[in-house]
Amino acid sequence: NEQAAKTRDGQIWIKRVVAEMGGKDAIVVAEDADLDSAALGTVQAAFGFQGQKCSACSRLIVDEKVHDALVEKIVEQTKKLKIGLPTEGDTNMSAVINKRAFDNTLSYIEKGVEEGGKVLTGGSGDDADGFYIEPTIIDNVEPKATIEQEEIFAPVLAVIKAKDFDHALEIANDTEFGLTGAVYSSDEEKLEKARREFHVGNLYLNRKCTGALVGAHPFGGFNMSGTDSKAGGREYLLQFMQGKLVSKKV
C-alpha cells in the first residue's frame, strides 16, 4: 500500500492494489448440524493439498455439546488418509513445499502443545525422503492461541470449543483475516445469522470452505486477506481496466 501510494514523475493516475493474501479460515459446526457431513467437509478442507491453500480450514470451531462426537468422526477419517507421492492414485496427502515449510509447521505444532493444545492424531514429520507432515489435529485450543490466530499453511487443524453458536461466530471473526469460512447447521435462522455476521469474503453453508469455482464463485477476501477484489468473475477484469461511459443524443 505504501509503495502504491507513492507517485512517480509523470504519473497521472492513482495506482490500484490488487492482492489476494492469507487466511485463518474456520468451519463452524452448530449443535444441530449433520455431523457426518461436517466431519467429511472438515477433513477435505483441512488436509486437501496438505493444507497449502489460502482457503484451507485451519480452525474447527464447534459447539461444545457436539464436540466429542464430531471430533471422534474427524479423527477416524483423518487416520485413514494415505500420505505418499502425488503421482500415486491412492495418495490423499503429499509433502509440504520445502524445508522451510516443514520446519515452520513442526514449530507451530510444538507451540500449540506448549499453549495447552492436545494432539489427537499426527504431530510429527519425516524429511528423509521429502518434507512429509502427518495430518495433525490439535484439540483444546483456546481462542487467541498462536495456532488459532496465525496462518500455518500446512496440514494442521486447531479445534476450538464454543459455548453456543453466537460464541462460535465471535471466535470465527476474531482474527485479522477474512477470506473463507463455512457453517454447518440445520437451522435456517443460524445460517441467515452467519450470512449477515460471519465476516469473510467467501462463505459456504453446509459445505466445506474450499473449492471455489471460476465463473461461479468469485474468490477473494478482505481485512488482511486481501483487497476484496474477487478473482474468477467478470468484475475482476474491471480492476485492470479504465471505465468509460459514452452518451449520445439520438
Explain how this protein is built:
- The protein has one domain: Aldehyde Dehydrogenase, Chain A, domain 2 (3-Layer(aba) Sandwich).
- The protein has 8 helices and 9 strands.
- The chain is globular and about 70 Å long.
- The termini are far apart.
- The mean pLDDT is 96.
Could you give a quick summary of the protein structure above?
With 250 residues, the chain is α/β, with parallel strands linked by helices. It contains 8 helices and 9 strands.
Describe the sheet with the most strands: 7 strands, mixed
Q: Strand arrangement, largest sheet? A: 3-6-7-2-1-8-9
Annotated CATH architecture = 3-Layer(aba) Sandwich
**CATH topology heading:** Aldehyde Dehydrogenase, Chain A, domain 2
Percent strand equals 15-25%
What is the arithmetic mean of pLDDT? 96
N-to-C span: 44 Å
List keywords for this structure.
single chain; 250 residues; alpha/beta; Aldehyde Dehydrogenase, Chain A, domain 2; two-stranded antiparallel ribbon; 16% strand; globular
Question: Topology, please?
Answer:
Elements: H1 2-5, E1 25-29, H2 35-47, E2 57-63, H3 67-78, H4 99-114, E3 118-121, E4 125-126, E5 132-133, E6 136-139, H5 146-149, E7 156-162, H6 165-173, E8 180-184, H7 188-197, E9 202-205, H8 234-237
Helix pairs in contact: 2-3
